[in-house]
Inverse folding.
């Protein structure tokens, strides 16, 4: 047996040649214990998953390598598992480069900061996620970038007609957050490109699978991996994927300049979930369609906001551009007192009340307080709700919604 003060001087070694470890004090030995080239590289046997290297520091083999730029010299922009996740996202998105950020919101702001400078103008869908618009109106404005909004239902021609001399980018989100209008993304992207203007999209809804923005001419595809790609409601992460290598280099520069970093453990979790994305999305989509079809026939429901439903206003666009649907859609209840909408939510037992989506669990929120602040002219007689259909059995979800609608109807009758 090896004594703590006289360790076996054989394996594993400390990485550098001829280290005379027998002469080292315990403190020195403990700092280097278990270290070897093999351990760092993940051993010769090839596990099916990438090794998780928890390392801010990268050790270099010799002085000449310290300032080389063909290998990582510091861990902030990511090591093995981050690179594996980026490579997997490149395949998902059909991208040449993908960069990771600590949340979806961080990925959105990074993408905008990569392509905009003081004096520029960006055109943004008024249907974009509220923090995106807040970033444009606040931070970007402070740094001299102007934002103008277009309606989430604006036709491609209307959006392109807004492009002016200072316009550098168009930011899309389709379907729109909360109200689910679709945009003609390919037409906007090709028209913008013809005018020398870049397009960006928040494609969290499409998850890189149901809609592939880069195939449709978009320059920067952003998603909150926090939602479907992660799917476990337990990790924050975002990505930006591009096909143009020079945009990839600019993105990497943004990563370095802003100091954003993502943890290897989070990357491992997201990569693990990515493997099951197709299965989960298929189940979310099939269940959501069944639930949405049922809701559409209920007397308490005034309108469905679900482009995958035949007969919905953007169904033709959805069929043309999307390969499937997911679990997220909206609905408008029949007109009733405000407390009746709350009664609907409070009666739900399987659906939990929560603002996120994309995870395994079904969620419901009322969206009226949010759309009222959007300035996008949202009009409806009844309350706007957003549902996320999770992986539970759809018949249990339908029974739960019936319970909610009964509570809504009862509260309307009492009013
Ligand atoms: C459409 C959309 N984009 C981006 C985000 C932001 O993601 P994150 O919470 O990871 O910052 C969200 C979060 O709800 C979202 O709904």
């Amino acid at each position: 047996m090896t004594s703590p003060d006289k360790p076996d001087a054989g394996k594993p070694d400390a990485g550098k040649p001829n280290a005379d470890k027998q002469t080292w004090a315990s403190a020195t030995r403990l700092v280097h214990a278990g270290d070897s080239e093999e351990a760092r590289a993940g051993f010769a046997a090839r596990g099916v998953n990438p090794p998780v290297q928890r390392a801010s520091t990268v050790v270099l083999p010799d002085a000449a390598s310290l300032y080389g730029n063909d290998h990582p010299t510091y861990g902030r922009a990511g090591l093995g598992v981050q690179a594996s996740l980026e490579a997997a996202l490149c395949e998902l998105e059909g991208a040449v480069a993908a960069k990771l950020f600590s949340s979806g919101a961080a990925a959105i702001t990074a993408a905008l900061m990569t392509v905009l400078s003081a004096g520029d103008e960006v055109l943004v869908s008024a249907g974009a996620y509220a923090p995106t618009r807040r970033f444009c109106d606040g931070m970007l404005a402070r740094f001299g970038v102007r934002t103008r909004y277009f309606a989430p239902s604006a036709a491609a021609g209307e959006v392109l007609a807004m492009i002016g001399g200072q316009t550098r980018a168009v930011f899309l989100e389709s379907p729109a957050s909360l109200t689910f209008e679709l945009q003609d993304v390919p037409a906007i992207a090709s028209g913008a490109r013809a005018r020398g203007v870049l397009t960006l999209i928040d494609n969290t809804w499409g998850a890189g699978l149901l809609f592939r923005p880069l195939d449709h001419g978009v320059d920067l595809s952003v998603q909150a991996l926090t939602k479907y790609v992660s799917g476990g409601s337990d990790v924050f992460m975002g990505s930006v994927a591009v096909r143009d290598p020079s945009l990839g280099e600019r993105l990497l520069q943004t990563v370095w300049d802003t100091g954003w970093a993502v943890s290897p453990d989070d990357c491992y979790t997201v990569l693990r979930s990515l493997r099951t994305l197709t299965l989960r999305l298929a189940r979310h989509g099939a269940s959501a369609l069944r639930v949405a079809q049922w809701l559409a026939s209920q007397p308490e429901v005034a309108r469905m906001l679900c482009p995958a439903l035949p007969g919905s206003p953007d169904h033709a666009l959805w069929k043309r551009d999307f390969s499937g649907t997911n679990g997220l859609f909206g609905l408008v209840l029949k007109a009733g007192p405000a407390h009746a909408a709350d009664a609907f939510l409070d009666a739900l037992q399987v659906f939990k009340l929560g603002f996120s989506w994309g995870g395994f669990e079904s969620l419901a929120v009322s969206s009226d307080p949010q759309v009222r602040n959007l300035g996008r002219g949202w009009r409806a007689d009844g309350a706007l709700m957003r549902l996320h259909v999770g992986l539970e059995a759809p018949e249990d979800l339908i029974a739960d919604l019936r319970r909610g609608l009964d509570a809504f109807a009862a509260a309307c009758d009492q009013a």
Summary: Residues 103-105, 129, 177, 202, 204, 224, 226, 236, 238, 356 surround pyridoxal-5'-phosphate (CB under 6 Å).
